[in-house]
Amino acid sequence: MPELYERSCRILSRINLILAILGACVLAVVALIIFFEVVSRTFLGVSRLWVIEVAEYALVYLTFLGAPYLLEKNQHVAIDLIYDSVRPKARRILAIFNSLLGGLLCLALAYAGLLVVLDQFATGVREASVMAPQKFWISIVFAPVMLLLALQFIDKLCRAATQSKEF
């Protein structure tokens, strides 16, 4: 593969790693605030209404922040039964089809997600909850992550088509 392409893949890989680390930090924060909520409720008789809500929103971010890294490392959910039972040529065709379909779907979802966030921002719609945050703060992570996933699928497509690396 050309040097520029490989350099771009390294940058994408670094972004994926940073997002995965950020996702791990989000998970640690969620665990800590829930732990302190349990301790506070048990020993002090005090409950904070915002803890569960923040944990719910954080889990959305956690899911999306880790997805590009998992796709890059082939640690995402996959149905290996079919893939492992076919010959290498059919495996390559399946990888090309899967990468093409996944990339196109992620691009469409990134575009739709961008439209949703822009609409939520423009209208100022809020969550119907205790904290009542503006909805775009919750969904803003979706479009850029879908774009990263699309780029990852494009990389997988290129590698499968050229058989330059394990796909």
Question: What can you see in these coordinates?
Answer:
It is built from 6 helices and no strands. It is an all-alpha fold. The chain has one domain.
Outline = elongated
Oligomerization status of the protein chains: single chain
**Sequence stretches where pLDDT stays below 50 over 5 or more residues:** none
Helix coverage percent of residues? over 70%
**What do the pLDDT scores average to?**
92
Number of helices: 6
Q: Which structural class matches the secondary elements?
A: mainly alpha
Largest sheet, in brief, is: none
Beta-strand portion reads under 5%
What is the first-to-last residue Cα distance? 14 Å
Tell me the series of helices and strands, N- to C-terminal.
HHHHHH
Number of individual domains: 1
